[in-house]
Amino acid sequence: MIRLYFHPTPNPAKVALFLEDAGLPYETHPVDTSKGEQHTPGFRAINPNGKVPAIIDTDGPAGKEVRVFDSTAILIYLAEKTGTFLGKAADRPELLSWLLFLASGLGPFSGQAVHFQFAAPEGEAYALNRYRREAERHYQVLNDHLEGRTYIAGDDYTIADMSAWGWLDRASRVRKGADDPLAPFPNLKRLFETVDKRPAAARARAVGKDHPFKRVSDEETKRALFPSNYPPAA
C-alpha cells in the first residue's frame, strides 16, 4: 500500500496523477502546510525537508517499508516499481534529462513566479520580473522541444509528461493576468490538454477536495510556508 502525504498543490498532484493512471491502491494523508503540519516531528521523519509530497510504501524492496520524498524521486520510484510510464529503454536518457529539467527549472521557477506575484510584499519588481520571465523561458524551451512531438520523451506518455502537467495546471498563476496563459506556447498547451483529457487527471485533481484545508493566508500561514523569512525564536 502507498501512503501519500498530500496537499492540493502542483507537486503532490503529479504523484496523485501517477497513482490514478497506474491504478495503484493508495491512502491519502492530508498535510495542511498552511497550518505548519509539514514541520511536525512526525512528518519530518518522513521528509526531513518538510515539504509535500512524500510517500510511504509499506511493500517496498524486499517487502520492507520505505519512505520516498520529492515529487521527481517519487515518480521515478513508482515507475520503476510498477514498470510503467518509463517509455522505451532507448529513450531513458532523454526521459531523465527532461525530468531533471522540470525538477530543477520549470517547477521551481514557476513556484517562485507565483510567490512573487501573489505572496511577496510590494516593491519586489526585480524578483517578480526575474522569476516570471525565467518561468516563461522554461515554457519556451519545452515548447520548442515539443514541435512535432506528442509527448516529451519518445513516443509514449511517461512520468515526464505527468511532471509537466502538475505545474502547467497552474499556468494562470504563473502568468498572472494572461487570459490564455499557454496560448503563446501552442505545443506546450497541446501537451497539457492531452494529459488533462486523461480520466486520471480529473481524479488526481479531486484528491483532497474532501479535506478542509486551511484557505486563509494569515500570519500563521506565512510562517508555516516561508519559515526562512522569520528569525528563529530566541
UniProtKB/TrEMBL annotation:
InterPro entries: Glutathione-S-Trfase_C-like, Glutathione-S-Trfase_C_sf, Glutathione_S-Trfase, Glutathione_S-Trfase_N, GST_C, Thioredoxin-like_sf. It holds the Pfam family GST_C. PROSITE patterns: GST_CTER (PS50405), GST_NTER (PS50404). Residues 207-223 have a biased composition (Basic and acidic residues). Transmembrane segments: none annotated. It comes from the Bacteria. This is GST-like protein. It comes from Ancylobacter aquaticus. The lineage of its organism: Bacteria, Pseudomonadati, Pseudomonadota, Alphaproteobacteria, Hyphomicrobiales.
